[in-house]
Structures are given as C-alpha cells and as structure tokens.
Specification:
The protein has 143 residues and is mainly alpha-helical. It is built from seven helices and two strands.
Amino acid sequence: MTAFARRARSVAARMHPELSLVSFTLLGHLEEHPGTRVSDLAAHYALDKSTVSRQVAALERAGLIERRADPDDHRVYVLEPTPAGAATLARATENRRAMFRDRLADWHPGDLDRFAAYLLRYNDWPGSERDDRDPGGGIPQTL
C-alpha cells in the first residue's frame, strides 16, 4: 500500500511538478462534481478549510480550475475544472491506464479476476468511506 501511494505521488509530480497528489485528488473530485464549494471539499475529505484553500489556490495559479459565483448564492464561489484542468486529468488517466496495462500485461486472466475482486472487496468494506482519508495529511488512500 505504501508503494502504491508513493507511485501515485510520483505520477502526480510528473504531471505537474508544482501540484501535490492532494491537488490532483481535488481536481478529480471537481471534474466529477463541478460547482463544488471549498467548504464542501473540506468536509468531504475531512480537511481544514485553510488546507483545501491552499490547494485550490495552487490549482487556480496553474490554470486548472476556476472560481465562479454560485448561481444559488452569489456570496460564495463554486469551483470547476478549466479545459486545461480537464486535459491534465485526461492525460493523467491515460498515463495511469498505460502503466497498469504494462504492469499487468503478463498476468494470467484468473489472477487479474482475483486481483479485481480483492480490490472491490477492499474498497467495499463498510468503514472504507470514513477510512479513505488520512487525517494526518489528507491523502486519500483508496486504490
């Protein structure tokens, strides 16, 4: 698990050297849930709002997300990926898939099936949603 997390951080650093794995995690969340507020991100990942704000600021400086006034409450802002942010995530996804294809190319189909079943079982554990966040650093631990 530690090696997996280390590789994930390394991939994030190669995609954009100024951004952390946490930043990429937040960017991915915003792609899946455009129009999310900073406070919602903080609550979802059990992080302090100031921590999320620093990550969001880095994503904004990199041109990967943008803030817009919330259509329901113009006093707050919502976040969503820019086209550059979506393209960065698409490249990261393709790179990750290519890495998995390379690493798993010589695995027997039965081994792949068992591996996939074990990952699903691990991620479906009843406490996994609560435990997927690392309270020390906010790095999601889900595979």
